[in-house]
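Minutes, project check-in
Item: structure for the 573-residue chain
Input as provided by the requester:
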Amino acid sequence: MTPPASALAAAPTPSDTRALDSAVGRLAEAAPAWARASLADRIAVARGMLAGLDRVAERMARAACEAKGIPFDSPAAGEEWLGGPYVTARFLRQILRALEGLAAHGTTPVPKLSEAPDGRLVARSFPAYWTDVLLLSGVRGDVHFQPGVAADDVRQGNAAFHRAPDHHGKVALVLGAGNINAIPPTDAFQKLFHEGKTCLVKMNPVNAYIGPILEDAFREAVARGLVAFAYGGGDVGTYLCSHPGISEVHITGAVATHDLIVWGPPGPEREARRRRNDPVLRKEITSELGCVSPAIVVPGDWDDASLAFQAESVAGMMTYNGAFNCTSARVLVTPRGWKLRERFLGMVEAGMARTPARRPYYPGARERYALALAGREDVRTVGGGDGTLPWTLVRGLDPGRKDVAFEQELFCPVLFEVQLGSEDPKELLAEATAFANEKLFGTLSANLVVHPRSVKDPSVGPAVQKAVRDLRYGSIGVNLWTGYAFGLGTTPWGGFPGATLHDPQSGLGVVHNNYMLPRVEKAVIWHPVRHPVKPPVFPSHGGKHILGRHLTALESRGSLLSLAGVTYGVLRS
């Protein structure tokens, strides 16, 4: 029975130290057996979790809508289906395929390998199965490996823990993010199924309401001591990070939180610790820490329909989930002197206007919004009022100056625009790549808007490929928001390699690597400039709530009957 709506988004009582110690103890006791568990046992656990998720999927989506002030029967509710139970179910389905491949063949299904134009090894990781081809025809996802990785390295190095276990039982602490409800469970899946560790998920206070629902979904794994949940604020997180029973930490959150965990509170002592490389945390930490994500528009032979499609795509990159995403577009790069600039920006504003303004559910949003607009001149707002914040476009920032818009991930509904280069696409790509790499905080995600004729042009095409290669980001979307790379599951998610504890940028390590591939550098999603199936991230999509519900059923049940509902959701777009 579904609890009454008023109870769905209620935050649990913070966990006290006795409950935390007990949870860590149960996980530590189960850890050695889980580290040596058979593949058949792991498969059974994943299947049980998937069945449990199917049972609670609607509760999960309803609770999120209640917490964020979204009517459950509105298209916007689709975001809570897609960003909660759907992505979680999709990942479990992929993990099952990987584990079943290991059991049957001794390896996960390694995708087709080829070479990128620069000679690097690439794996075609999307589409992953036939429903991907059916629903997203023409879309492809490539995993680019780090320099020096050969095909044999991938074939012999995938699923590393399952082939050569590197521990005899560990307890991982996952500090969950508060903005997207799929993040805490999918981060936990990385530890449970990819790395063979039991896992304590400490819920963020913003979405702690989802924890009891996940506990219900995963109750068999909870009963076995494979996963546990904890609640509370920073004091609970601090206690658990220093707990002797916790082996390692994973956080999805902000750089400030990462530095607090690793180096201690701000002040002279922290700085002294950093100078002598003496972190407070003496445990391994992995992380995903956000980004000032650029959307770079490349001049070309743009027709009106293609330009409008991509303008709405940019609008969706910002408005989706109220702009509270680590991969939300924050800085829009347009060519200096571009004759289509005014038309394109007007289309972006029109796209934003199609999404009702949202209540700023994420703490500090109003203060960040005020900071974002302080001293600005060319500010365009759409909607707002009645407790909401308007969608906002700030035009014409000076790319040569220091600016908070470039240096901080401002979690609020503001998109900044800068002009770079010229109407020469090669000049624009070169300047935009340097600007993104050197001026913008983070290495998580970048977006390119480029006409396919430019990609095929013998002069411009190599410059596009060079930008894809040179952009130091863990995910790149070409004519599609990198939020897709987050949700596909076969495209690993994380910052660009090379981060350190002293300079974590967008984080250390990757998650969502459901092919279990080694030494990943970046994921690149390629999308047609237009598509007959409207992406559900588009503000004008009128059936995303229907689509989200049935996509979730398709992944959690594997039922072909769900395709009829998916088709209806597509037609309602």
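Outcome recorded: The mean pLDDT is 95.
No further action items on this chain.
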